[in-house]
């Protein structure tokens, strides 16, 4: 893919730094950035990426509309109000929204959907572990897994050290337990998913897309 200009909201955060490093390696140029203290603009971005906090979502979407730029949203902790904002903006610009940009998590979700159909009378629980600095609990990814199961199941959350993200789904019968686990060993895996999303999104018509669309939509 030919080089493009991009912007990051949450530029100085862990994911902002990881995305910048990977996108720069791929030959793309950061021309717009926002963090808690600064906003820098060198040129109009072809694409905006937001890994910040829910409170700045309205600003991110306004920038996307102002620049006529697609937007990738990776922030967690959105509520119904935020999703209404996203839905409204997606009528004007293309948006990819996901709580997790890992290919492995998408595989876990597919496995979970298969197992829930065949183990409908088994107990199901979810556990998730993240670094001590993660503010939302449970994680957005755990909520995605719960939605894939399609019913209310318990979620246990741990906040320990500097864990990028562990998620396990347990299916328990009366004589056996089956578990599926995904562990992120580096935040780079999420940055790689964001890059795939950028390549997918540029040139797309306005609309709301998921990372599942990025990986599997024909």
Give keywords.
Dihydrodipicolinate Reductase, domain 2, alpha/beta, 218 residues, Rossmann fold, 7-stranded mixed sheet, 11 strands
Number of domains: 2
Report the mean per-residue pLDDT as an integer: 95
Q: What do we call the CATH topology of the largest domain?
A: Rossmann fold
Query: How many helical elements?
Result: 7
Structural class estimated from helices and strands: alpha/beta
Q: Which sequence of SSEs, written as H and E, runs from N to C?
A: EHEEEHEHEHEHEEEHEH
Query: Strand content of the residues, in percent?
Result: 25-35%
CATH C-level category of the largest domain: Alpha Beta
Distance between the termini: 18 Å
What's the overall geometry? elongated
- Kindly provide the radius of gyration, computed on alpha-carbon positions and rounded to a whole number of angstroms: 18 Å
Oligomer: single chain
Please bin the fraction of helical residues. Answer: 25-40%
CATH architecture of the largest domain: 3-Layer(aba) Sandwich
Characterization of this structure:
The structure is a single chain. It is elongated, with a radius of gyration of 18 Å. The mean pLDDT is 95. The protein has 218 residues and is of the alpha/beta class. The longest helix has 16 residues, at 103-118. The chain has helices at residues 14-25, 57-67, 80-89, 103-118, 140-149, 188-201, 211-216, and strands at 5-9, 29-34, 39-41, 47-50, 71-73, 94-97, 123-130, 155-159, 165-172, 177-184, 207-209. 36% of the residues lie in helices and 26% in strands.
């Amino acid at each position: 893919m030919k080089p493009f200009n991009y912007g990051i909201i949450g530029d100085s955060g862990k994911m902002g730094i990881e995305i910048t490093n990977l996108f720069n390696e791929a030959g793309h140029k950061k021309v717009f950035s926002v963090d808690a203290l600064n906003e820098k603009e060198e040129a109009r971005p072809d694409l905006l990426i937001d890994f910040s906090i829910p409170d700045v979502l309205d600003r991110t979407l306004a920038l996307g509309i102002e620049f006529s730029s697609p937007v990738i949203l990776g922030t967690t902790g959105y509520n119904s109000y935020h999703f209404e904002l996203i839905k409204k903006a997606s009528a004007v610009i293309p948006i990819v929204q996901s709580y997790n940009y890992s290919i492995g998590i998408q595989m876990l979700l597919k496995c979970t959907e298969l197992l829930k159909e065949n183990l409908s009378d088994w107990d199901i629980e979810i556990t998730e572990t993240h670094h001590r600095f993660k503010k939302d609990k449970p994680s957005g990814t755990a909520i995605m897994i719960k939605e894939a199961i399609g019913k209310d199941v318990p979620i246990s959350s741990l906040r320990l050290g500097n864990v990028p993200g562990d998620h396990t789904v347990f299916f328990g019968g009366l004589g056996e337990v089956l578990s599926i686990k995904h562990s992120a060993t580096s935040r780079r895996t999420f940055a790689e998913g964001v890059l795939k999303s950028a390549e997918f999104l540029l040139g797309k018509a306005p609309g709301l897309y998921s990372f599942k669309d990025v990986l599997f939509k024909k």
